[in-house]
Fold this sequence. Notes:
The structure holds two protein chains of two kinds. Chain A has ten helices and eight strands.
Amino acid sequence: xxxxxxxxxxxxxxxxxxxxxxxxxxxxxxxxxxxxxxxTFNRELAEFLxxxxxxxxxxxxxxxxxxxxxxxxxxxxxxxxxQDSHQRGCAGATVIPDMDKPLSTTDIVPVIIFFHGGSFSHxxxxxxxxxxxxxxxxxxxxxxxxxxxxxxxxEHRFPCAYEDGWTALEWVRSRKxxxxxxxxxxxxxxxxxxxAGDSSGGNIVHHVAVRxxxxxxxxxxxxxxxxxFGGEKRTESEIRLDGKYFVKLQDRDWYWRAFLPEGEDxxxxxxxxxxxxxxxxxxxxxxxxxxxxVAGLDLLQDWQLAYANSLSSFSHHVNLxxxxxxxxxxxxxxxxxxxxxxxxxINNFVNPNC
Amino acid sequence: MDELLAVVGYKVRSSDMxxxxxxxxxxEEAMGNARDGISQxxxxxxxxNPADISNWLETMINNLDVPPPPHPPLPQQHxxxxxxxIAGKAIYTTAARVKPSPAESSSSTRPLVLVxxxxxxxxxxxxxxxxxxxxxxxxxxxxEALVKQIGFLAVxxxxxxxxxxxxxxxxxxxxxxxxxxxxPIHHSFSDMLQIHFYETCPYLKxxxxxxxxxxxxxxxxxNRVHVIxxxxxxxxQWPALMQALAxxxxxxxxxxxxxxxxxxxxNSDHLQEVGWKLAQLAETIHVEFEYRGFVANxxxxxxxxxxxxxxxxxxxxxVNSVFELHKLLxxxxxxxxxxxVVRQIRPEIxxxxxxxxxxxxxxxxxxxTESLHYYSTMFDSLEGSVNSQDKVxxxxxxxxxxxxxxxxxGVDRVERHxxxxxxxxxxxxxxxxxxxxxxxxxxQASMLLALFAGGDGxxxxxxxxxxxxxxxxxxxxxxxxxxxxTKSVVAH
Lengths: 354, 492
């Protein structure tokens, strides 16, 4: 056992830059301390260890942020990231949001609702890794990003995260000041909504998008960054890559047990939307186009590829970005090609006319 | 420091990267092998300063008794950025947009938190800012018109926004009309306000609790201890410490308390009265107690010789300051003098709690904006309070601070709050090093908050060995602890 661990650790060392390896391994180690065998989670230690940053209404690299708290749901808040050209304010000085005006009356500004990852249990919208990622996303895509601090498991199981996602979608759509586009021409002034998420966040995006399509709510596109899907069956990639690149299958199982209703298995449609208990999305014509990014060294890739294939088979538009040598979490540090590929794809996806 | 890791909250020197990687591997392997390793590290081990990955790992390695790696790492793994070892075309981007430029990597952060229906209140904020700008530019007729408009807009607001706007408008009006508030505030009144503030929201309780944790740890194994409190007020911090000392295994130490405070307006000896009450408590819990009250207009008037210090072999000293040090920044040289006196005291530990904001910047507009954001969040957190009288008193308590920050200047402006980062620099320059507060203090502080009725928006955060209490995502106060940098030197 010890011997094969050593081989595994060395393998992952050879495919990512050293500081990335340190970052992801450090998370892995911390996460191992937090999951308990009895299914409970050491939340106090998790919050102690998580590196958090406050919002900042002083623009940094042209991006400023503020938090909006929804007091009806414990812990639910959105962190909004904007470019300071979309609001008044000179560099260095505080920006006060101007909620009487749209983002633009001439251009379209995509608003990306972002759901952070963490396997439904870890991280927050104000975690430093996600705050940093969202800021970069804003600048790369000239969008507004709304990062959702959804309720986490095991304290809040399915469907809490999805409900919070829905609440966020409704909130974003109803903000007059998040609208953009010309008000007189063919494109109306409205909120140009996209949704994005990594890991469990990607899973949330899918489920919120299904509901939106069913209820006739417009979402212009989904971005799923190595999304969390699974099933009872063990796929070839899960077996081949188990324990090799930062992720162990048994840990994945733990997180599903913590998220899904007690007693449920991984063929529950939350986990396996197109599996034996899933449903077809054929005919759900307003389901948004989807960008699925798969990391070639992620043991869940078979599920993610099957997801993309299923969407295609339902005649939905899918862009697949397969990054052969990427591990999970490649996008946390911008020190590799995969990061730039992903950012380019996202930019093209939310700015299709540019 | 590795810049990319720093931005995501971790401090690792680039030159240490390979060593940190090695520790991670070591620990991972040991955790896999040790039977109860994980549960021990999770439940029993006290963790400190997770931003410093190297030391964090080292603590756990020591706790698990991990043997050194069986063979030295292979040579090619030593070079941190050996790109040949990386599959694919991984490169380091030097794109300007991701590299922090010196001018923009400012440490000033101005968090903004809006609650629910406050979008209407944003217009009020815009008007307040416009008024402050007008005052700043000495356009007093415009400022006057705007102040009146604020009053008008505020009436239609509900909750925290209305109250905050009213206090800030009043402070601006004072500035416009030159009606500066009288100072100092009568001490007995402000003491009374502080008591209500203590009851209505957990900031003072958190401050006392976390400072006491650090003091207790520093006093471990000492038989005679002495606390010098720069912020005596009504002595509310000390019953809990005394009770904790009374319950110490092996019995309590002898406890001496020196309480320092400004003179009472009515010339009463309120410091002595507080001391009497604490003496009565000490008697009921069987703690040997000694007390001395010291009246001083300013902490800078103190000298170490006045404090009747005893040899450090017989008595361990803690210096405690809760929301006091910032007042010294109103006079040049005062804080430096006080810190040098603290050095002369040779304390085991110095505990400091301060407001987490920069209300001491040179520019009026910056101060105004910063305090507007800060007190808006503070007032928000009071909204859920159960007892309305406590709430009103707390608002008055905070309102006086607002007035001081906005309407006063020079030596009268005593609410010169500075951030944890700024205090770290001061203490570092004055010859102190940090004493870290750990996961045990964090956990207990979190539990304390959970018991606190009136709002579940309070959050404890760990910040490089210090603990902060905030409302939702905005830290509002910070507790830090310090020791002399040359503490390891025996002779003095």
